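Checklist before submission:
- one chain only
- standard amino acids only
- sequence pasted in full

Submission:
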Amino acid sequence: MTDLEIAKKVTLKHIDTITTKFGVDPREIEHYGKYKAKLPLSNIDKKNAANSNLILVSAISPTPAGEGKTTMSIGLSEGLNQLGKKTTVVLREPSLGPVFGIKGGATGGGYSQVLPMEDINLHFTGDFAAIEKAHNLLAAIIDNNIQSKANTLGLDPRTVIWKRVMDLNDRALRRVIVGLGGTTYGIPRETGFDITAASEIMAILCLAEDLTDLKKRLGNIFIGYTFDKKPVYTCDLRAEGAMAVLLKDAIKPNLVQTIEGNPAIIHGGPFANIAQGTNSVIATRMGMSFSDYTVTEAGFGFDLGAEKFFDIKCQSAGLSPKAVVLTTTIRALKYHGGAKLDALTTPNTEALRKGIPNLEKHLENIHKFNVSPVIAINKFLTDTDEEISMILDFAASVGVRVAIAEVWAKGGAGALDLAKKVIEVVEACNQPFTPMYDWNNEVPAKIETIAKEIYGAKHVDYTAKAKKDLKTISALGLDHLPVCIAKTQKSLSDNPVLLGRPKDFIITVREIEIAAGAGFLVPITGNIMRMPGLPAHPASEQINIDNKGNITGLF
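Returned file contents:
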């Protein structure tokens, strides 16, 4: 059966049952139908959260074959629950861009899913719409201020960096001209659209501690300069209050359920290749407030989402994971070893041997944060005993725990060995993680630390635009902010065709965007785009609905 067919065969429990199991009085939640709810922020207990064991699920460098990181996260949480550990999985919300594009949804797969699958993958509880509206409200206020004669800051339209957003892949909107049509339509200027997952509002929502902190961060958004070269922030436009009103419900995390009827929290959805790639601080803390173990994931490979999880989210919120699960597949490693995409199901130990260095590099990176990894082999039917033995032998040679996981086919029962090894690592952990850099270091030093230590680069180049951006950042007094590097997920380098474990490459920073509200800087490398495009044959071609409301084609 397909993921959607499996999901439809599950008899969902009422959300009140899930809420009670989670540990909250159902009278305190905000119902969104029978199977979804919002959890009030008042339920967060930082003291309880400090005693919860936080587990991060990451992966090797992604391939077109898929690695199953979300599926593994859900399966691991089911396995821990089966072993008697009260566990909550905390994930990001899917973006409609990938759902209708090429990647698909983000609710897991097989017998390791969060439900209701269709609702979560589509409009869910409206969080993305609220983020989009808050972002575009600021854009409208900016253009109104530029146009206005009575209420103007003297904002120079040539310096405005704030774009608009929408939650779809649409490359035609990357660069647009607004304000055409005459004086009553506004001042013509060049701008563009990003995808909602790349919005600074999304980043802010996912790092905010509460509504007060949310408003403060919204007010700190850097807009541009006046004609007198004075910086302009959202607070100068007095827009943060109205924006926060639009986000008053979106800031609350969403409670749903797994296939096995365990609580799952899903909140926020920044991409890891262009943003911080992890769910909200609020959602993570909520899960930790009521759970012995809290399983969360960070987008794409460890070099992207996980590095940002440690250096930005954990540093900002004072979190410290006790273990990292590194999801890998035989077929993905064969792809990194040179095997063709259409030949990944064919036994090929030579390609696997050549691909293992990618796994090796990610393990080395985990150790650099002073955290112990567990390799999770996401097993497929086409994996041979000989290929599996190669991974087991490699893990033994580097002294890393490894488990074969069959979470897609068996759910929690397929993750029991993995869960036991994770418990071993957690119980042996007696110290916090070590960040890669000090936020107070100079910006180039922070970028180069990540590029050299995590990616394996030999050198970092800066374009003239990036060098100018560094001067702007310094003049604004924002040198102390951490860096959230935008980079291709397909390679450890900034060149997507360099698979495996490339060495002696150069990372090129072409510009550095300022996200002062979120509290980080965004060095953009290679050809990474903050508004993806659709493939020649997008997933939307297969998605449909019949007269009875039955949806087909989601995955």
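Reviewer check: The chain has three domains: 3-126+250-428, 127-246, 443-525.
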